[in-house]
Amino acid sequence: MIPAPFTYQRASSVDEAIDLAAEAGEDAKFLAGGHSLMPLMKLRLAVPDTLVDIGRIGELSYVSERDGHVAIGALATHDEIARSGVLAATVPLLADAAGRIGDPQVRHCGTIGGSLAHADPAADLPAVMLALDATLVARGPSGTREIAAGDFFLGLFETVLAPGELLTEIRIPRPASAGWSFQKFSKRGIDWAIVGVAVQGGNVGLVNMGSTPLRATATERELAAGSGPGDAAVHAAEGTSPSDDLNAPRAYREHLARVLVRRALQEAASRA
Amino acid sequence: MSILGTRVVRTEDPRLLTEGGTYVDDLRVPELAQAARVTFVRSPVAHARITGIDTSAAKEAAGVVAVLTVADMDDLPPPPPDSGLTGTEGAPLPLGGPWSEPLLAVDKVRFVGEPVAIVITDDKYGGEDAAELVSVDYEPLGAVVGFDGALAGESLLFPPAGSNVAVSTGTPSDSAAFDACDVVVERTITNQRLAPVPLEGRAVAARWADGKLTVWVSTQNAQIARFVLAGALGLDPAGIRVVAPDVGGGFGAKVGIDRDALIVGWAAKHTGRALRWAETRSENMLGMTHGRAQRHTVKIGGTRDGRILAYRLEIVQDTGAYPRMGGFLPFLTCLMASGAYDIGHVETAYQVVVTNATPISAYRGAGRPEATAAIERAVDLFAAEIGLDPGEVRRINLVPADKFPFTTPCGATYDTGDYVGALDQVLAGAGYAELRAEQARRRERGDVLQLGIGLSSYVEITAADADGGETARLVVHDDGTATVYTGSSAHGQGHHTAWAMLVEAELGIPMDKVTVIHGDTDLIPAGVGTYASRSLQLGGVAVQKAAVEVKDHARKLAADMLEASEADLELDVGRGVWQVRGDPAASRTWAQVAAHAGDTGLTADVNYTEGKPTFPFGTHLAVTEVDTETGQARLIRHVTVDDAGTVLNPVLAEGQRHGGIAQGVAQALLEEMVYDAEGNPVTGTLVDYAIVTAAELPSFELLSSETPATINPLGAKGIGEAGTIGATPATQNSVVDAVSHLGIRHIEMPLTPARVWAAISEAREGR
Amino acid sequence: MKVTVTVNDGEVAAEVADRTLLVHFLRDVAGLTATNVGCDTSSCGACTVLLDGRSVKSCTVLAAQADGRAVTTVEGLNDGSGELHPVQRAFRAEHGLQCGFCTPGMVMASVSLLAENAAPTEDEVRTALEGNLCRCTGYHNIVRAVLAAASEGQRQ
Question: Is there a cis peptide before residue A229, judged by omega within 30 degrees of 0?
Answer without folding.
Answer: no
